[in-house]
Queue: 2 jobs
Job 1
Amino acid sequence: MRIVLKIGTSTLAHETGRLNIRRVEELCKVMSDLKNAGHEIILVSSGAIGMGVGKLSLHKKPEDIPTKQAAAAVGQCELMYTYDKLFSEYNHTVAQILITGEDIENTERRTNFENTMRRLLELSVIPILNENDSIATEQIVIGDNDTLGAIVATTLQADLLIILSDINGLYTADPHKDKNAVLLHRVEEINPEIEAMIGGVGSKLGTGGMITKIKAAKMTTAKGIDLVIANGDNPSNVYDIVEGKDVGTRFIAKKVD
Ligand code: GLU
């Protein structure tokens, strides 16, 4: 299977912005193992701004754009250093690709991106993508990595997109407010009833929330790709998701010819 795994900031970093070492080590181990088992792995990793916040001791996510972009530049290095080191322990090679909205909208650049990605996969590399936060401006920004994950999965005709976050999946109501809220394991169709279950909350350091995840699910399922939203706090869940077990919420792909 060709698997795109999107990891949110809340999964990678503590609230301080510092790396969640145990979590990231376990995730890299699971991804390495899945790769050894014959799967292709593409990682979409957030955390550049979050880790920059930690490394620059900024105490909270900056609000002004230059500081955000500076934090991303610092944090992205830290992120790639960490992935390179951990995947190397399992003899896997990683590559960094940073893109913006323009790279997707411009046909030539999109083709270039696609060709590079395909070549990296042929070379058995694990591509690690993020938005190029240090140069992206409002006009050209993709904006969030759930959407980036869906763009990558659809462009490369992946078999599965997994989004790991600090939530278990989609609930019938807000589980923090309603104790009768039930986790939905399978969503066959994103209809108005499902849309009504979406809350707008995100974490302190991350960007998305359920809205961007559902948007990503609409994009992938329309192209015949399942999307699973699951909690990143237990990395071995990823094995179960790949085996098709009920973990988190699975948005079932539409049949495409
Ligand atoms: N690109 C941002 C970062 O790495 C995160 C965007 C997102 O989480 O959606 O900090």
Job 2
Amino acid sequence: MTVQKITIAIDGFSSTGKSTIAKQLAKHLGYIYVDTGAMYRAVTLFTMQKSLIDKEHFDVLGLVTKLNDIEISFKFNPELGFAEVYLNGENIEKEIRTLEVSSFVSKVAAIPEVRYQLVKQQQQMGKGKGVVMDGRDIGTVVFPHAELKLFMTASAEKRATRRFDELIGRGDVVTYEDVLRNVQERDYIDSHREDSPLRKAEDAIEIDNSDLTLEEQFEKVLQLAQDTLD
Ligand code: DC
């Protein structure tokens, strides 16, 4: 029987299904799941609530001086089977998934002071191992020594279709073209920013799930996790 626990880092472009596979893995292994994108989205929501960002301007200094007023936490929801994100004690799981938050989040995530603060918190949450963490810099910056690193990819069109279906499914009014544009814009900003740009860690295993079913993907990734644990 395997008793040792490992750290599983899952990185990749937006809407590549990182959180789906991370949740499945965490549930199966009895590990903690941490959605680091939700943390950057929480800071973005805070920035919007304080009117520090809109289409024309972004008061970076204003945000940086208020970073200590932001408290992000996760609370497990047994009905959903995963931990929901809270901003200063308030459940914001639904608010952070809008296209409006998505349209600002890459700009907020490019600020080094924001990254420093969140990375510190992420390292703290995963220090006992037994964690599946997904994001953009988990295998490169947050846990460069993770035992298993995955890098998820899929075509921009496939990803936009998935995201569009998800947003429509929950009643949001969006067009496919807007969603595709957002996916492409975020790909560009996330992989070209100066601080911790999205890139595949040298020892990460790339998984293109454009043509994989959820079951096929889970089987493949679970096998990799089990091989790592053996
Ligand atoms: O995974 P997501 O789409 O919810 O992430 C939202 C944004 O946050 C994404 O565009 C880039 C940023 N992000 C990041 O820079 N680093 C992470 N570890 C996770 C997300």
